[in-house]
């Protein structure tokens, strides 16, 4: 009995490690990820990582580019994603909203999804303004509370969950800047609840601004976010209200189409 329990624990551990490796490789969709980078990010030993990567490649879940010695998501991941897309049709629903946002504002418009403690950018539509911010692109991941999409989602989660997600302040501030302490993020969340939309005033990259609004799933939880990014001069205070109104209109439109409604959570005093 004890052996069976141990096998279950070990099996779950392997699944967790495989999932983490796939996420790490997925964070570098264009250039791919090198072995040393994956080892550092995963915290696993080099032999363990190398063995798991090769096993995933045999199954088609990863692809190894021998010319550059980099690892990429494999063809089987594409097939799985295409099949799953039929169940999660958010991209088809959100695409018209992204186009309207890009056309009306001239800024680049994005759709991000919450995945655990992170947001992942799913889609973008480029705006007409010739100068752009390149902080956000398809496949990029940020912790919740970092970037406008993650802030917009985090603001409407329960207080206890927010507290848990904001743990690890030192590593977050070290990776993304001093504007990402727990205190700074909590102050930002209060402002988001008042206006309904988030503002990221160049906290990740100086001069690169963003704004976001949450989209709610049928249970009333913030599961996605629309966002706009651009240079600081395009996000002056006098224009923020206009951009925020447009973001909220489109976010509410998608939420209604999904048959959902926001379940607003207040911070505990």
UniProtKB/TrEMBL annotation:
The HTH iclR-type domain, residue ranges: 12-75
Keyword Chaperone: no
A GO biological-process term: negative regulation of DNA-templated transcription
A molecular function GO annotation: DNA binding
Superkingdom as given in the UniProt entry: Bacteria
Keyword line: DNA-binding, Transcription, Transcription regulation
Segments traversing the membrane: none
Protein name: DNA-binding IclR family transcriptional regulator
Domain IclR-ED: from-to ranges: 76-260
InterPro entries, per database record: GAF-like_dom_sf, HTH_MetabolicPath_Reg, Tscrpt_reg_IclR_C, Tscrpt_reg_IclR_N, WH-like_DNA-bd_sf, WH_DNA-bd_sf
Keyword check for Transcription: yes
